[in-house]
Specification:
Strand content: 5-15%
Largest sheet: 9 strands, mixed
Shape: globular
Radius of gyration: 26 Å
Number of helices: 20
Number of strands: 20
Structural class: alpha+beta
Length: 776
DNA sequence: TCGTCTGGCACTTTTGAATGGC
DNA sequence: AGCCATTCAAAAGTGCCAGACG
């Protein structure tokens, strides 16, 4: 239904420029190329697209009222892994994530269409090594890899569609192949990453506008590995992932069986004709026999399996003898299978019409998936469960903002968990969005959560340490973010994640839902603690001319030194420099901007960084040894289960900024008004020196640069609310889209993303250049 | 020598085509 | 002819492991 032809007038947004830019940068690894061909091409854009950006003079401009909330359904499973130190295998061909991101969305306009994106960004600029039973940062991170974004196959779909079912990104694959052409997310091994989920209001895939929300779940941070380092993680994976069922204790590929086979193998090598000791389950063991005579091999191959106590094979181990097969294992598998059955193939057309008619059915399936309960009890303690060591603060070589994103629900914990919400600095993001556990249950039954008004929000700040809280950062960031050309090579004193100001507008508490494919204890109350709201990143820069830097709200128990909550002073309304964007874009900045101020512009609130910092702050304290922290002040540990929520509207944050400290610090992520942490001057921290050549990727969101939305279609944004003038792109982590190979989207839609179909081959994957006219 | 990565292996699950019954 | 359920095989997803690589 959707086709390129439908959008002949598509205008290339500024964000895409940045995306295009990355290719060139990637080619040079550490040496960012600037300006890039894309930038040059941007210069030739029709002048009509680049009218002077009006200076926002309305300091009271409100960001779109949005209470979009996202819950991580399988949060409990994620927490189990994170408590140990989540490791994700990456392979050349691509490896799925496990646990996967299973999300529930609410607060969307049912009639509007949205695009859901998943990207994974580095948490820090460190490389890790598993030593002494823990992960330790052992050096600097490698050059940043191509930024790729995984588009949910249902995208675009109506808000009703997204809210009517569990959203899963299990099709997304991770790879360490820098030349991957399959569109997988490229990551470095032995690095720490944080997934993010973006919800973008879009008229269609080529018309993005309105609000954007980015959600980060700190517990979904993970370390990439090519082989599991921590045996506990392996054990968790085997017991949680149905595909690894064979490696369970009762599986045919279990350690015992393998050891027995290995033992027999040795025995066979000694006596190749020892047929008695041959494990009938291991065809490889026939190999030595085949060396004897072909007749022997054929005869053996046709023989029925024989129990052989000496080789570990047991008749009871025969899967066909169901009476001896443990049932709990089956539960897990069934649960996962059910989850896999979940709706994936929603066509765009259906998405338009989908009103969630099958909500009940979907939830039934979802719940069925969660029947299987992992034998592991979540150890994700609220106070000190983080298994990831804190990376040393970025020194100078590179700045990687850290942002977390996870999903999972845990029913293992029968105790109801409150989901306090961070007090929103923005009036539009009041704490009312939080919901009580009872509401969570209700939302579980009905995919579309009831109005949040019924919920009883709990202040995150006031929450007790034991309370699992997730902060939601509402965000209107434009998906078309510019890339940071200088990112890999530029030493940055203003770390992307650290320097950016973070404004936590609200902590949205969401009821948890049972997860698909995730082990869940059961029941209604299980859902309570399973879901978690995500951090949302405000992408709108305040129209408020107040030059005072916005202070990021404190995140409780934030303990990550590198989690840069340092806010760079941003004269949001006044002037911004965009080194990474084409010159004309840079000129779009506002009055009062001087060449010298460009640097400060670089330190303008980087929402992505903010979110990253927030996510880090909320990540459970590391139980692993970690290099000395460079933070000048020790920080109380952040509640492991809590999730930071950052208002999507930067303007909102700005409006509330007056109450905030003038400078931002990782500690300042929490609401300054309630925070017990004194604001820290950025300048006091050498690593966060604003003078660093960090180049922001903030993207101007000028109306002329954005496709016009059909006014006839209701928007989630208040009609009276002017569109955000600025989108705080993810400075160092621009969105880069790639199509899910299993996408259910119609061919024309896929055509927009899949490079093979598009005819543009590129070693870096399915990126569309400007000539493709694709916004992504 | 050590740490890391790769490809193949065995096992399991998922997926879709083929088949048959109503 | 259309729909549904079942069966089956191929594809894909797992962790493990030996060997290769730097």
């Amino acid at each position: 239904m959707l086709s390129v032809e439908m959008y002949p007038s598509l205008a290339l947004g500024p964000q895409r420029m940045g995306d295009c830019f990355y290719r060139d940068r990637q080619a040079s690894a550490h040496m960012p190329v600037f300006p890039t061909a894309c930038d040059v091409a941007a210069k030739v854009l029709p002048p009509r697209l680049l009218p002077p950006l009006p200076i926002p003079n309305d300091t009271t401009t409100k960001t779109p009222k949005t209470d979009v909330r996202m819950e991580l359904e399988n949060a409990s499973l994620w927490k189990q892994f994170s408590s140990v130190g989540t490791e994700m295998i990456i392979t050349k061909k691509g490896r799925r994530m496990f646990p996967g991101l299973r999300l529930k969305l609410s607060g969307l306009n049912p009639s509007l269409r949205y695009i859901l994106l998943l990207d994974i960004i580095p948490v820090d600029n460190s490389r890790y090594r598993f030593q002494g039973g823990g992960w330790q940062a052992v050096g600097g991170a490698e050059a940043r890899l191509p930024d790729r974004v995984f588009i949910h196959p249902d995208s675009p779909a109506t808000g009703a569609h997204w809210q009517s079912r569990t959203i899963s990104f299990h099709y997304a694959k991770l790879t360490n192949n820098t030349l991957d052409s399959q569109g997988h997310i490229i990551l470095h091994s032995l690095h720490r990453y944080q997934p993010r989920v973006h919800v973008i209001e879009a008229r269609d895939v080529l018309r993005w506008g309105g609000g954007q929300h980015t959600f980060v779940f700190p517990e979904t941070q993970f370390l990439t590995v090519t082989a599991y380092q921590n045996n506990k993680i392996t054990e968790l994976k085997i017991n949680s992932n149905p595909f690894a069922k064979g490696f369970r204790d009762d599986g045919m590929n279990s350690k015992k069986q393998r050891d027995a086979r290995q033992k027999r193998k040795i025995s066979v090598s000694t006596d190749p004709l020892d047929i008695v000791n041959c494990d009938p389950c291991d065809s490889t063991e026939l190999q030595p026999i085949t060396t004897g005579t072909d007749l022997q091999a054929l005869a053996l191959a046709s023989l029925p399996q024989l129990p052989d106590p000496s080789c570990g094979f047991r008749p009871e181990g025969d899967p066909y003898q169901d009476t001896l097969v443990p049932e709990h294992q089956l539960d897990l598998g069934q649960a996962f299978m059910a989850s896999q059955i979940s709706d994936i193939g929603i066509s765009m057309v259906n998405g338009m019409q989908d009103t969630g008619g099958s909500e009940v059915e979907n939830h039934m399936i979802e719940r069925s998936d969660t029947i299987g309960e992992p034998s592991y009890t979540s150890t994700f303690s609220a106070t000190n469960s983080s298994s990831f060591p804190l990376a040393p603060l970025p020194q100078s070589s590179s700045s990687f903002p850290s942002l977390p994103v996870p999903e999972s629900s845990d029913t293992s914990n029968p105790q109801p968990i409150d989901y306090p919400s961070i007090l929103s600095s923005s009036p539009t993001l009041s704490s009312s969005s939080s919901s009580t556990p009872s509401l969570q249950q209700t939302s579980f039954t009905f995919p579309t959560p009831p109005p949040s008004s019924a919920s009883s929000p709990q202040s995150l700040l006031s929450s007790t340490p034991s309370v699992n809280t997730y902060h939601t950062i509402a965000e209107t960031i434009s998906p078309h973010t510019s890339t940071d050309a200088s990112f890999p090579a530029q030493p940055s004193t203003c770390q992307s994640g650290l320097q950016d100001q973070i404004s936590v507008h609200s902590l949205l508490i969401q009821p948890s839902h049972t997860l698909q494919g995730e082990p869940i204890t059961s029941g209604n109350n299980s859902s309570i603690d399973q879901s978690s709201a995500a951090f949302t990143y405000p992408n709108i820069f305040p129209a408020n001319p107040d030059p005072a830097p916005v202070t990021a709200q404190y995140f409780p128990n934030y303990s990550h030194p590198q989690a840069p909550s340092l806010s760079c002073s941003h004269g949001a309304p006044t002037s911004f420099a965009f080194p990474s964007v084409p010159p004309h874009m840079q000129n779009l900045s506002f009055s009062n901007v001087s060449p010298s101020s460009a640097h400060h512009a670089l330190h303008l609130p980087n929402l992505s960084h903010q979110a990253q910092a927030a996510s880090l702050a909320s990540f459970p304290p590391s139980s692993f040894t970690h290099p000395s922290s460079s933070l000048p002040h020790p920080h109380p540990t952040f509640q492991p289960s809590s999730c930071l929520a950052v208002s999507s509207s930067f303007q909102q944050s700005v409006s509330s900024a007056p109450s905030m400290a003038p400078t931002a610090h990782p500690q300042n992520l929490r609401n300054a008004s309630t925070s017990s942490y004194p604001p820290v001057e950025i300048g006091a921290i050498p690593q966060f020196n604003p003078s660093a050549p960090y180049r922001p990727e903030m993207v101007l969101h000028h109306p002329s640069l954005l496709p016009q939305l059909d006014p006839s279609i209701p928007s989630s944004l208040p009609s009276s609310t002017p569109p955000p003038t600025l989108y705080s792109a993810f400075p160092s982590y621009p969105l880069r889209l790639c199509q899910d190979p299993h996408s259910s989207i119609s061919i024309p839609f896929r055509h927009l993303y899949r490079q093979p179909q598009h005819g543009h081959t590129h070693p870096q994957g399915p990126y569309l250049d400007m000539s493709s006219r694709a916004v992504f």
